[in-house]
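Q: Given only this backbone (245 positions), what sequence would you predict?
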């Protein structure tokens, strides 16, 4: 049975992705920074008859927590097939390029960028033991430099000067990571779940977590012919998933 670690999976997009991968027969390590809320999420899945899942405490902004999670997982499994770096924060509002505090930037990057680096580096040895390792970095169309600079883009006037750079940086990390792993069976991609209704945006999103989960799960389940080093947004282009960096 293939194993998956999903960060920030106690609710919203991460939780739904866990549910869909469970339905596909994967074993899920459900990452949650608060263990109790992770265990409650596991109970909800168990109540649906999905029992190949256990909660793992992991705060991606805390190296001790990430290292403890790596040690705990290493005692349970020799290999990890899929890592989904989903945990993310919006960074609060407003986000003015001239007024946002350095602390606001630092906190946001700590989770959205350094958190992904921290977790990826901590779990890479377990992933290397999988014959078909997959890494999905949950990004955002808001991280597209090309779209953000395009006055014809619908969201041109919606600037989040803290969150957007964090996702652009995550995209660049995805490119660098995929490059370093290019001679291996790894597939490493950045996937935009779409603008979906969650706590993240006070449920203003227009899409559903089900759509988002399906978009992410697809890149967790890529076969050997699947792409690597790409940025995908099925919301931006429903047919191809193409979105400019
Ligand atoms: P959400 O409803 O706010 O859920 C975020 C999840 O991340 C929660 O489980 C949260 O845990 C967890 N988390 C936050 N900081 C963490 C940390 N330091 N360590 C571990 N877990 C942490 O957000 P969402 O909408 O599901 O977003 C999930 C991902 O999709 C994010 O990366 C976000 O940037 C991306 N995204 C979302 C949208 C959208 O429209 N919703 C669009 C594009 C991209 P707690 O429950 O403990 O807070």
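A: Predicted residues:
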């Amino acid at each position: 049975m293939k194993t998956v670690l999903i960060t920030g999976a106690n609710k919203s997009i991460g939780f739904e992705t866990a549910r869909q991968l469970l339905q596909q027969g994967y074993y899920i390590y459900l990452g949650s920074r608060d263990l109790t809320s992770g265990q409650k999420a596991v109970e909800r899945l168990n109540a649906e008859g999905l029992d190949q899942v256990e909660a793992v405490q992991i705060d991606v902004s805390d190296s001790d927590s990430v290292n403890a999670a790596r040690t705990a997982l290493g005692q349970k499994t020799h290999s990890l097939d899929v890592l989904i770096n989903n945990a993310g924060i919006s960074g609060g509002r407003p986000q003015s390029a001239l007024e946002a505090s350095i602390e606001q930037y630092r906190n946001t990057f700590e989770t959205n960028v350094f958190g992904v680096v921290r977790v990826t580096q901590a779990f890479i040895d377990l992933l290397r033991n999988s014959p078909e390792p997959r890494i999905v970095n949950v990004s955002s169309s808001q991280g597209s430099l090309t779209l953000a600079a395009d006055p014809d883009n619908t969201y041109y006037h919606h600037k989040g000067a803290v969150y957007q750079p964090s996702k652009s940086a995550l995209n660049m990390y995805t490119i660098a990571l995929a490059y370093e792993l290019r001679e291996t069976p790894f597939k490493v991609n950045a996937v935009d779940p779409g603008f979906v209704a969650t706590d993240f945006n006070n449920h203003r999103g227009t899409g559903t977590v089900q759509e988002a989960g399906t978009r992410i799960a697809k890149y967790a389940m890529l076969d050997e012919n699947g792409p690597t080093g790409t940025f995908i947004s099925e919301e931006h282009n429903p047919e191809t998933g193409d979105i400019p960096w």
